[in-house]
UniProtKB/TrEMBL annotation:
Record membrane topology: Single-pass type II membrane protein
Protein name: GH18312
A Gene Ontology cellular-component term: plasma membrane
Gene name for this UniProt entry: Dgri\GH18312
Domain of life: Eukaryota
Domain spans labelled Peptidase M13 N-terminal: 51-420
Length: 682
């Protein structure tokens, strides 16, 4: 492991500091600075690359070699590293019990993690759990009581049990969704389940024949893993029956896969559906079995033809095939918890914990790695950024294109933006998991319990008021409709963006830029139509609006040449917002840095502290390097189109509009990154 990685993870054997409390480790300033320098240097281009030509390549040239996208066929980027760190630190945290220090929710997470770590690839345990949870008294795959399937097998009851116990949608899909007509309530949606191959055409069009063949083979292979003693014929027969049944079900899906939910939905009561479909597909009974109550509410039935087609499928399909299909789908869902090849079990199991207990994991992380100093530093950087923008709005020089009145309204909006740290109500999190029992040595039974717990919570939403969408972001996020800035807990990780030992140039170049970007979203094309309370409300006078359009036109012309990148088209729907934030944030964060320098005693020690070993860059240059490296990324070959402007263009174009950048690297007039006509808004 490289030195900088060790330090970020805060637990390096190399430094023989095997402490269990990561934050208590007391690295010396010199080591931290050295590690940061090595981190920056690792990504610098190894070729002769002129900063004024292509700055992005200059600082990120080596990124694709260290973080190639081709391995997982997925874009890699610098900020994603923060998530990796979160996962790796979480693995350490989940492995460590703290007797007396863990809450009941913490112990649950740790039990789940430990059981996953030890048993997630135990296929026999998955199978045993499956047979315990569900009711296949006829036996499977060896059928001990064949008559059971003919006479007693009640397919509807079996799938209702599986839905209730494991949350799996088989043959019928059921969910609680936000009502699209009245947003303040939830509604039950019933109809088609999500089929593994997707839409109707994948199942029924001749052109997808090969896809289906591959699908069938993958089913046969999985069956073989679970039932090694069965014959080749059996794998083929069962997998063939699975695909066949899904093809029958897909006949009830709409021809046009692009139709929206509203276009394919009708509203009915369970009693009306019972009248329409009779006892072959008895919706009332199904709901009764799931909710243990008679449901009188209106339901959304979607897509409209699914259940009537299902009546035919049920009538014509042997019960044994329905049973085989049901068992297979359940098994396949449990199988998805198995550790995939080439993934470390520790990493995989953190993902499992995160999937099922996202808030509890964040809370545990926060309590383990919480660093008051980081929160304070973040607050102070934020107030620096805010102050600089406020000063610009107050002075009549920089933003002279806005009228005084509009600038005053902008100040009022700016003043109202607050940081919100996503923190959780600990008691509530513990209450949520009340009654859930997990054992450190029984992964699949645990998984079944967790799935049941989740399903009950999901279904219980039907009678609850919708909460404000609790979306989790990875970086600070500006929320338009309440004029607040959300700071995710995973963002507050020691030494990634900043540390008191690092030059402040780095803090302003990374954290400062990220905060300024989000702040400006309150003042860009979309955000400027919302007021300080987050209500839609145009507070711009016509003169300022006119200037705004003219200035953003300058950017549009400047960026218009980037219709494609490396021969692939670029269609960025949020282009203007991105441009405004990119260009404005760079300038505001830099000014904030310069002001900080001015307000600090300018001694030679200060300038020494503002530089790093290994790199002979000035403090101003470090600011721009840290900024640009935030955007280092690599795209897989398979990308056909860019739906966001690629990072290289974003970084280079924003820099080319910056006089300060040109000065910091002494770019000449003819250099590419010294735009002759510089565009500016904020
Ligand atoms: C870290 O080390 C420095 C210098 O050795 C010392 O002054 C400081 O108290 C230590 N801090 C902690 C938290 O141990
Ligand atoms: C799980 O996988 C690991 C490594 O792939 C292997 O060593 C172990 O035996 C497997 N455990 C079971 C129960 O199959
Ligand atoms: C279903 O409801 C009945 C009466 O309302 C109750 O006695 C029974 O325990 C419930 N069953 C389950 C599984 O919740
Ligand atoms: C269902 O599975 C049983 C047991 O493995 C097998 O004998 C039977 O042929 C299968 N039937 C159908 C219709 O898929």
């Amino acid at each position: 492991m490289e030195l900088w990685m060790c330090l970020l993870l805060a637990g390096c054997a190399l430094l023989s500091l095997g402490a269990t409390q990561p934050l208590a480790i007391n690295y010396t300033t010199d080591i931290l600075r050295l590690a940061k320098a090595a981190h920056i240097k690792a990504y610098l281009s190894e070729d002769e690359q002129k900063p004024c030509d292509n700055f992005y390549n200059y600082v990120c040239g080596n990124w694709p070699r260290l973080h190639p996208a081709r391995i997982k066929n997925k874009k890699t980027n610098y900020l994603e590293e923060l998530q990796e760190l979160f996962v790796r630190k979480s693995a350490d945290m989940l492995k460590t019990a703290r007797p007396g220090g863990d809450s009941s929710a913490d112990r649950l997470l740790k039990s789940f993690f430990t059981s996953c770590y030890n048993q997630a690839n135990d296929t026999q345990s998955a199978l045993r759990t499956l047979l315990q949870v569900t009711d296949f008294r006829g036996g499977w795959p060896e059928i001990r009581v064949p008559s059971w399937y003919y006479y007693e097998y009640d397919w509807l009851q079996v799938i209702a049990t599986i839905k209730r116990r494991l949350g799996i949608d088989i043959i019928i899909g059921l969910d609680v969704i936000l009502d699209y007509k009245e947003e303040h309530m939830h509604r039950l949606k019933i109809g088609a389940p999500q089929l593994p191959l997707g839409h109707r055409r994948q199942y029924l069009d001749a052109s997808y024949h090969l896809t289906r063949l591959r699908y069938q083979r993958s089913i046969a292979e999985k069956l073989q893993r679970y039932f090694p003693e069965q014959s080749q014929r059996w794998y083929e027969e069962v997998s063939d029956q699975v695909v066949d049944l899904e093809q029958q079900l897909a006949k009830g899906l709409p021809h046009n896969a692009a139709l929206t939910l509203e276009q394919t939905t009708r509203q009915r009561t369970a009693a009306e559906m019972k009248a329409a479909y009779g006892s072959y597909v008895d919706v009332s009974r199904y709901l009764q079995m799931i909710f243990n109550d008679t449901m009188y509410v209106d339901l959304y039935e979607t897509p409209e033809d699914y259940l009537s087609n299902l009546v035919d499928v049920i009538r014509l399909t042997p019960k044994m095939q329905l049973a085989n299909y049901t068992i297979w789908r359940t098994l396949d869902t449990l199988d998805q918890a198995r550790v995939p090849q080439n993934v470390q079990p520790g990493i995989w199991c953190v993902q499992m914990v995160r999937d099922h207990f996202p808030q509890q994991l964040e809370s545990l992380f926060h309590r383990n790695y919480n660093n008051m100093q980081m929160i304070n530093d973040l607050q102070s950087t934020w107030s620096d950024i805010k102050r600089v923008f406020r000063e610009q709005l107050q002075a009549s020089t920089d933003l002279h294109w806005m009228t005084l009145e509009t600038r005053q309204r902008a100040i009022a909006k700016l003043d109202a933006i607050e940081l919100q740290f996503r923190n959780h109500d600990e008691t509530q999190l513990i209450r949520q998991t009340h009654g859930l029992r997990l054992h450190p040595d029984q992964f699949y039974p645990n998984l079944a319990n967790v799935l049941q717990w989740r399903t009950q919570r999901q279904l219980a939403k039907l009678v609850e008021e919708p909460q404000l969408m609790d979306q989790v972001y990875k970086v600070p996020h500006y929320e338009l409709t309440n004029n607040k800035m959300q700071i995710p807990i995973t963002f507050l990780q020691a030494r990634f963006f900043w540390d008191p030992a690092y030059p402040n140039a780095i803090k302003y170049g990374t954290l400062g830029v990220l905060l300024a970007r989000q702040m400006l979203h309150g003042f860009d094309d979309v955000g400027r139509h919302y007021d300080r309370h987050g209500y839609r409300n145009n507070w711009w006078d016509p003169i300022s609006e006119g200037s705004y359009s003219r200035r953003s036109q300058c950017f549009q012309e400047q960026y218009a040449i980037f219709e494609d990148f490396h021969g692939k088209p670029v269609h960025d729907k949020g282009l203007i917002s991105r441009i405004v934030a990119d260009n404005g944030a760079l300038d505001i964060a830099y000014r904030a840095y310069v002001e900080w320098l001015k307000n600090t005693d300018e001694t030679s020690t200060l300038y020494q502290r503002e530089q790093l070993p290994l790199l002979d860059n000035t403090h101003n240059q470090l600011f721009y390097m840290a900024y640009a490296q935030l955007y280092c990324s690599d795209y897989p070959e398979s990308v056909e189109m860019f739906d966001e402007l690629p990072e290289q263009i974003r970084v280079n174009t924003a820099l080319s509009n910056s006089e300060h950048f040109v000065n910091a690297f002494s770019c000449s007039r003819s250099d590419k990154l010294n735009a002759r006509f510089k565009c500016a808004l904020y």
